[in-house]
Amino acid sequence: MIQYAAGDRRMTDGAALLAARARPSSRQRTASYGILFLSMWTFVVIDGAWVYLQLKTLGAKLIPISPLIVLMLAAAGIWTVVKGTPIRNESGLAVGAWIFSCYLLLALAVQVHCGWTGAMAAIHGFYVYFFFLIVAALRCQVPGIVSQGLVACSLLAAGLALAILGIFQHFSHDLFDAGRSIAAQAQAFNLGFSGETRANGLFAHAEDLGAFLSLAAAVAIAHCGSSRRLTVNLLLLLLYVVFALGCYATWTRASYLAFLSSSAAVVLLRTSGGRGWCVKHLPSILFVVGLVIFFGRAWISSALDSYSVLFDSHSLEDRIVSSTYYWRELQRSGLGAILIGKGWITFSHPRAYVPIDNGFMALILNIGVIGLALWLWLTSRIWNACLARVRDRPSSLTIALTAAYAPWLLLSIIGPVTLYQMVALLLFVAAPDDAAMKS
């Protein structure tokens, strides 16, 4: 009896061991959720790739980007439930996100009641401008879903491919089938200025390519010097040069400012450790630099005595014209529209036919001066949360993503910017390699 019992116990233990091996481990589940999230994040950011894939396989753009967004957020949400760690309110972000969401509901009710816009048009505008901002704020301090090493390698690989494509597009004066098809679907103008072609890679707009390459360059320069192997550091430096050339190929002011400011922010964050007055107020400092370029463009251009995309006056004057037009539209509707906004985005209303090339004016038109103040407060809280990560859990990727987020105020002078929201979201879900794979 004892021998039979021992044999049965050995058989039972063996079956349990086989069953345990058959079940995916916590590490494998974590890696699966992380890869799914990062893949969907990349497709959402490089939105032209999703469009071009459909054009080549289905013959037309039939499926919107929304299913990919649902998959991305589902991966993050399922991991949160599996991990079982409650969301903590870091830097007041969760509360801030709910306050901002409640204001959007109030603005929606007022805008529809006053007849300034339709409900669906206003909701679409809120989705375009604020969806990922709110998601990033709510995801802060949730357990890491993807390792930082995987994030860094993915950004460098994608950036290298896009930079090479952009360089060929610019210097060959040919966007190729991918660039032309994507730009045509978005009705974007990438033919260029002064005989130069504005490379767009797999993006609809050239400035989007520049913003992504600025992010990849920040990752490269932040990791440069962190390895003991000279070949690795030289390779990262070479990648940085390639990203710089790819950014130059976009031939857009926004790309150049994003590249320079994010690279400078990496150096400042690495040397300061995320501490100091200049670091805390870095977005405001960059914003002032942008104002100097904007309002001092004529003097700077004459002092250089040569044409420069960075200080070109014509496109800046176009931005003044569009801002003036929409400010008059707000005044036409009264003080309520100025405070709450009219819920418009470009082409969402018969009178919204002028492109909005100023992020602050775009926000005032959409959610009013009150909404702009809340947006500034929430995005500043996200900046403080990013700095807290640099101080408390410093890593090369944390520094790079924080640096890429830093110029959001500067770039908003030139046009509406949404990539910084995705950068903050990626920072908040990326965990150190040991923590991300820990069961």
Strand order of the largest sheet: 1-2
Record field, number of beta strands = 2
The helicity comes to: over 70%
Would you tell me the structural class of the helices and strands? mainly alpha
The average pLDDT value, as a whole number, equals 82
Oligomer: single chain
- Termini separation: 40 Å
Radius of gyration: 24 Å
SSE string, helices as H and strands as E: HHHHHHEHHHHHHHHHHHHHHEH
Uncertain ranges: 1-23, 434-439
Total count of domains: 1
Number of continuous helical runs: 21
What's the overall geometry?
Answer: globular
Q: Estimate the strand proportion.
A: under 5%
Largest sheet: 2 strands, parallel
What is this structure's SSE topology?
Blueprint: H1 2-22, H2 26-45, H3 47-57, H4 66-83, H5 93-113, H6 119-139, E1 146-147, H7 148-171, H8 176-186, H9 206-223, H10 230-249, H11 253-272, H12 277-280, H13 282-295, H14 297-304, H15 313-333, H16 335-340, H17 359-392, H18 396-405, H19 408-412, H20 419-429, E2 430-431, H21 433-436
Parallel strand pairs: 1-2
Describe this structure in words.
- It contains 21 helices and two strands.
- The protein has one domain.
- It has 439 residues and is mainly alpha-helical.
- The N terminus and C terminus are likely disordered.
- Helix 3 packs across helix 8.
- It has a two-stranded parallel ribbon with strand order 1-2.
- The longest helix has 34 residues.
- The two termini are 40 Å apart.
